[in-house]
Design goal:
The relative contact order is 0.28. The protein is built from 2 helices and 9 strands. With 157 residues, it is mainly beta. Helices cover 8% and strands 41% of the residues. β6 and β7 form a beta hairpin. The protein is elongated. The strands form 2 sheets. Strands 1, 2, 3, 4 and 9 form a 5-stranded antiparallel beta sheet that branches. A 4-stranded antiparallel beta sheet has the order 5-8-7-6, with no helix packed on it. It has 2 domains: 84 residues, Chitinase A, domain 3 (Roll), CATH 3.10.50; 46 residues, Thrombin, subunit H (Beta Barrel), CATH 2.40.10.
Length: 157
């Protein structure tokens, strides 16, 4: 079966940075609903169109294709007294900003202040996404209406 809109696709993947360093490898297969349901980056979806089980792709993702450009305005300095007592470097805080949820990464703590970065850790980076198609099946009507996969490796209600 070929991959097309409203198929459930299972892939294994590896993600590399611009210097070819392995950043992430799927410990288990990733399953998503193909066809613009926001389950995977659009450029990867486009490259997977019409592929079959066993086929592989390698896609270079510019920052705009993946996690966006690095935005220096997404850096904040906060007084430690205004943050949870267990805040640590490398930890994350979730807050609402302009009506949307922002995840802030704590990048440093010094002199009673913490530096928070709201950029994704891979923002501003060119990446390479290599994957192999492990399975393809038609999506159920319920999966299509919900816009995500149900069952094994997918979303469970």
């Amino acid at each position: 079966m070929n991959i097309f809109a409203n198929t459930v696709v299972t892939i294994s993947f590896k993600l590399f940075d611009a210097s070819n360093k392995l950043l992430e490898e799927s410990p288990e297969p990733l399953t998503y609903l193909h066809g613009g349901h926001s389950g995977i980056f659009p450029k990867i979806e486009e490259a997977l169109n019409h592929k079959q089980v066993g086929e592989s792709i390698s896609v270079t993702l510019e920052p705009d294709d993946a996690f966006g450009e690095y935005d220096p305005q997404m850096i904040r300095m906060e007084t430690l007294a205004d943050l949870p007592p267990d805040v640590t470097v490398g930890g994350y805080l979730v807050a609402e900003q302009d009506g949307r949820e922002v995840i802030w990464r704590v990048t440093s703590i010094a002199e009673g202040k913490a530096v928070l970065d709201g950029n994704h850790e891979l923002a501003g980076q060119r990446l390479r996404f290599d994957c192999t198609v492990m399975d393809v099946r038609p999506a159920t009507a319920e999966e299509i209406s919900h816009g995500h996969v149900h069952g094994p490796h997918g979303h469970h209600h």
